[in-house]
Amino acid sequence: MKIHHIGYLVKNVEKAAKAAEVLGFTPCADAVYDVDRRIYILFMENGGYRIELVQPDQDSEIYPLMKRYKNSPYHICYDIEDEEMDAAIERLSEQKFTLFKAPCRAVALEGDAAFLMSLDIGMVELVKR
After folding, report:
1. What is the mean pLDDT of residues 2-23?
2. C-alpha angle with apex 50: 3 to 103, nearest 5 degrees?
3. What pLDDT, on the 0 to 100 scale, is given for residue 42?
4. CA atoms of 52 and 77, how far apart (whole Å)
5. Boundaries of domain holding 22
6. Number of domains in the chain
7. How confident is the model over 66-107, as pLDDT tens digits?
């Protein structure tokens, strides 16, 4: 699996983007709103590295994570281009990863995404574009 991006949970995507620009990141496109997940998403790049700024609405299922993570990285996303989503989830489940969010459409990635948790490494996202 290849790393696609590091996801940052942020309170305000515009303020976070300005801070990331100071570090040399530039937006890949305009921010998008994922209606299903109720989050604003902005991808930014710097020298081949990609971050995802995620601002949840108060009624988003990931909003409670703001208490735990505040403004900080909270997941690493892996591109599973050479593997089917169900096979990747099954393989990771055999290694004690727990499915946290079943595969669903990821508007900003133009593909499907699933989230898994590991007690040893935390949250990971799988994306199939």
Report:
1. 97
2. 55
3. 98
4. 9
5. 2-128
6. 1
7. 988 889 999 999 999 888 999 999 999 999 999 999 999 998
Q: What would the mean pLDDT of 39-63 be, rounded to a whole number? A: 96
Distance CA(61)–CA(89), nearest Å, equals: 21
Domain CATH number, residue 97: 3.10.180.10
Q: What HEC string does 58-84 produce?
A: CCCCCCCHHHHHCCEEEEEEEECCCCC
Q: What is the pTM of this model?
A: 0.93
Concatenate the DSSP letters of all residues of the chain into one string: -EEEEEEEE-S-HHHHHHHHHHTT-EESS--EEETTTTEEEEEEEETTEEEEEEEE-TTSTTTTHHHHHSSEEEEEEEE-TTS-HHHHHHHHHTTT-EEEEEEEEEGGGTEEEEEEEETTTEEEEEEE-
Mean model confidence pLDDT for the chain: 95
Of 20, 19, 111, 57, which is closest to residue 125 (Cα–Cα)? 111
